[in-house]
Amino acid sequence: MRGFGVGRFRIGLALALACAAGSARAEISGDVVRVGVLNDISGIFQDTNGMGSVEAARMAAEDFGGGGKGIKVEIVYADHQNKADVGSAIARKWLDVEGVDAIVDVPNSAVGLAINTILRDSRMTFLASSTASSDLTGKACSPNTIQWVNDAWATGNTTAAAMMQRGGKDWYFVTVDYALGKGIEAEATNYIEKHGGKVLGSSKHPLGTSDFASFLLQAQSSKAKVIGLANAGGDTINAVKQAAEFGIQQGGQTMVAFLLFVNDIHGMGLKVAQGLQLLEAFYWDMNDDTRAFAKRFAARPGMNGKMPSGNQAGVYASTLAYLNAVAATGSDDAKAVVPQMKTFKGKDKLFGDTTIRQDGRVIHPMYLFEVKKPEESKYPYDYYKLIATIPADQAFRPLADGGCSLVK
Questions:
Q1: pLDDT category, 44, cuts 50, 70, 90?
Q2: pLDDT > 70 fraction of the chain, expressed in percent and rounded
Q3: How far apart are CA 223 and CA 352, in angstroms?
Q4: What are the boundaries of the signal sequence (predicted)?
Q5: In what order do the strands lie in the sheet with 145-147?
Q6: Per DSSP, which regions of 209-281 are E strands?
Q7: For residues 351 and 317, is the Cβ–Cβ distance under 8 A?
Q8: Cα(338)–Cα(323) distance, integer angstroms
């Protein structure tokens, strides 16, 4: 199985200090903390996740530096190929055979929800830093799961709210036909209709679609003020490129990408992407801390000057937070580590003011950006201009509204 082939490449980081390990280390299984990066290495998410996520996890392990206790960390990785059965098989092997202690990343909600079920009540922690399904902190919430960066509720509600405040009340959706897209469209539709807007139609497309012509022509003919792209990765890129060919934005309609990253903008170019609206949890050029991280990331092997996506930043932040909790508890068992992670409230260098709630949702600000025109960009990856900042307490579903059994 191709995912297993990739997974055998282990990067031992050997971060032990010279001093003897203390009693805390005795509770670390196998005398090493193994973090498995599970994502799409060869498909439509390879630029926003892929090997960049692996490098981000390695950076977190290096910065952890043994946690002052000589704790060894090993990063492994595998390709789930956007298939729930492949991802599930890898997770089970990591859990039952290979002694992996935490799984991080996991773009593709169908795969993420399957992993969430497998790891529930096991000793493994699920750091769902790229799984966008809001069910992870709702009806499918697990005591083993922490969810970072975006989710469907935040993406749907917050983006819809920001656009409606700017006059975008009539919508048409172009939606990928699986859990991610359906969840985003449902959340956005709920907000739009409750606040006096209208959804004029929706077109569903398979994952990995190359020809969006019929979907975009239906959206164009609907005369909707806003066309919402409820998809991600290569699907969004293809849709935006073809929309530019049809002159959709020049015709007065605004296009909104619910899950798009700076790597995607780089791939399609500013001439095509200019004027696009999108919601992000992280942008490399926000402040000195994000720029410092991005510069280090861009210099990593194989990155060739690429700036990190929000998902890759989420892998770094969640992996480092997990390792810090391991150091604090002296254990890599989820039953000890996850409750420790949920005590965090403070400043994260990449995501700002951050709290980890009892339902596992990490709360941080979100940002509405507009993609710059080519003449507005002054240097490589200078692609966004900030339109609105959504405070952390407004960006995510309220704690009591998700139906999570962990919330008392």
A1: confident
A2: 94
A3: 38
A4: 1-26
A5: 10-12, 73-79, 33-39, 102-105, 125-128, 145-147
A6: 226-232, 254-259, 277-280
A7: yes
A8: 11
